[in-house]
């Protein structure tokens, strides 16, 4: 991400994947149930917001592609070909899967003894 100018250098290892999130949830549940409930609500809200981003492969991306199709139909332009939409969604799903795997591997590496 830092190569794309999206995040400052050195911030990617701070991302927490499922292993880190579960560890944090377990810690909070043992300390204070109210903090745990707030943590779970925050995670749920973050997932909802992330899912509505206009990125292909996510629900927001599907809404964006439908909006492009509707705008094209309104203006009398040709609609996007289904193969083009499928290609866009496939490429985005592969990119998101790669990011998720990268975060997961980083998470597992941090959880291993000696790291």
Helix/strand class:
mainly alpha
Number of strands: 0
The H/E string reads HHHH
Q: Helical region count?
A: 4
Q: How many angstroms separate the termini?
A: 23 Å
Major beta sheet, specifics? none
Which segments are poorly predicted (pLDDT under 50) over 5 or more consecutive residues?
A: 1-6
Taken as a percent bin, the fraction of beta residues is under 5%
Helical fraction: 55-70%
Kindly report the average pLDDT value. Answer: 84
Basic shape: elongated
Gyration radius, rounded: 19 Å
Structure overview:
- With 115 residues, the protein is mostly helical.
- Helices cover 70% and strands 0% of the residues.
- It is built from 4 helices and no strands.
- It has helices at 18-31, 33-51, 59-75, 82-111.
- Helix 1 (18-31) runs antiparallel to helix 2.
- Residues 1-6 have low confidence and may be disordered.
């Amino acid at each position: 991400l830092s190569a794309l100018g999206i995040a400052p250098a050195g911030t990617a290892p701070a991302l927490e994947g499922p292993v880190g999130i579960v560890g944090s949830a377990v810690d909070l549940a043992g300390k204070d149930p109210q903090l745990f409930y707030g943590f779970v609500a925050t995670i749920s809200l973050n997932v909802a917001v992330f899912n509505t981003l206009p990125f292909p492969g996510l629900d927001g991306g599907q809404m964006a592609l439908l909006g492009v199709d509707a705008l094209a139909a309104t203006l009398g332009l040709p609609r996007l070909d289904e193969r083009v939409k499928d290609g866009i969604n496939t490429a985005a799903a592969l990119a998101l899967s790669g990011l998720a795997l990268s975060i997961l591997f980083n998470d597992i590496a941090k959880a291993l003894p000696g790291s």
